[in-house]
Amino acid sequence: MVREVIGQCTSCRRDLFCRDGFFEAEIDNGNSFCYACFKLLQEEFTVRELGSFITQVNSKPEGHIGYCGVEAMEVENTLQEDFSDLKLEDSFIVWKEGGRIIAALGVDWDSEERTGELWGPFNLSSEEKWQLHADILWRLLQHKVNQEGTWYGFYNELNHQAKNWFSVLGGQKKSSEVILHAKPGKVSSRSIGKTEEYSDRYQDEFKRMHQAVFPNTYYSADEILSRKNSKNRLFVSAENNHLLGYVYVEGNPDFKEGSIEFIAVDEQARGKGVGAALLERASAYLFECVDAQEISICVSADNEAAIHLYKKVGFTEKHRLSFYKLQTN
Ligand SMILES: [Zn+2]
After folding, report:
1. Which of 6, 108, 296, 306 could bond 117 through an S-S bridge, CB–CB 3.0 to 4.6 Å?
2. Residues contacting residue 98 through CB under 8 Å, at least 6 positions apart
3. Distance, CA 28 to ligand 1 centroid (Å)?
């Protein structure tokens, strides 16, 4: 019998052998895999089992990532309706043992921007196997997705395993973010009258202010204006037809929740209660018109003035998260 090493598994790096002229491995799209990894690559899953696994892991701070929630129905809905430019089965790798998912890693890939938000690793492997299993999932996901670009990780400060794993891969920490939440009846409403619904006469000032305050953010001013509809609203504060600030909110009546996506106040207008007024208007809209049972807002941990304002109005701190970026080309 002749048995020789002729390569390594793309995913777990185990040696692959050729025995009596027979290659003991599988080849997929030009890469070689051991039988175990090849099986993982083919593993099938339903949206329901994936959604329920993700929310189970995501509901604990030590497994939490910032991109998805903790309600199974809502996560299932996102996976089905609003996830990745690639097919869902090409955007997730699941690891099953005894028919149950024990780990999963996915990416919400944006083909135009060539960026991906990493969902996971959601990983219930033992302490010793955690990093190894995460690496295997990562290499399998990269093989499946087959794209180069920028990958983002958004991990809870207490999710030490994932933060450590992504740093070892080469992920650079870019910022710390704070997520604050508010419940109905907890937000003041003293100065709502100082605000109004956005109208096109503020368009130029709005575009300039958004570009100046959020130069590299996920929605440009034009994207906000095109996303604006009966649920997603833009409110402004103005004086003599001059824009002092704006707040953009997205409401999700199906899941009774909403988020304050962007809030900005002109530098000249700071200290006059404009931010508080906008925040109150946004909250009142989400609680009353969307029937939100919870509102969230994400802010840079460095922005102590904003955090102070949100707390003063009635928000409380829920999570601290680290934002990472990894380039693969
Ligand atoms: Zn392998």
Report:
1. 108
2. none
3. 12
CATH of the structural domain 45-170, one choice from 3.40.630.30, 3.40.47.10, 2.30.42.10, 3.40.190.10: 3.40.630.30
Ligand 1 geometric centre to CA of 157 (Å): 31
Closest CA to 196 of 269, 271, 290, 278: 278
For ligand 1, an ion, list residues with CB under 5 A.
9, 11-12, 34, 37
Domain edges within the chain: 3-41, 45-170, 180-320
Question: How many angstroms separate the CA atoms of 258 and 246, rounded?
Answer: 17
Q: What is the DSSP letter of 52?
A: H
Write down the CATH number for the domain with range 180-320.
3.40.630.30
Tell how far the Cα of 86 is from the centroid of ligand 1, in angstroms. Answer: 24
60 CA distance to ligand 1 middle (Å):
30
Supply 19's token pair.
Answer: 């025995």
* pLDDT tens per residue across all 329 residues of the chain: 788 998 999 999 999 999 888 888 999 999 999 999 999 999 999 999 999 999 999 999 999 999 888 889 989 999 999 899 999 999 999 999 999 999 999 999 999 999 999 999 999 999 999 999 999 999 999 999 999 999 999 999 999 999 999 999 999 999 999 999 999 988 888 877 789 999 999 999 999 999 999 998 889 999 999 999 999 999 999 999 899 999 999 999 888 889 999 999 998 888 889 999 999 999 999 999 999 999 999 999 999 989 999 999 999 999 999 999 999 98
How far is ligand 1, taken at its centre, from the CA of residue 67, in Å?
29
* CB-CB contact of 184 with 194 (8 Å): no
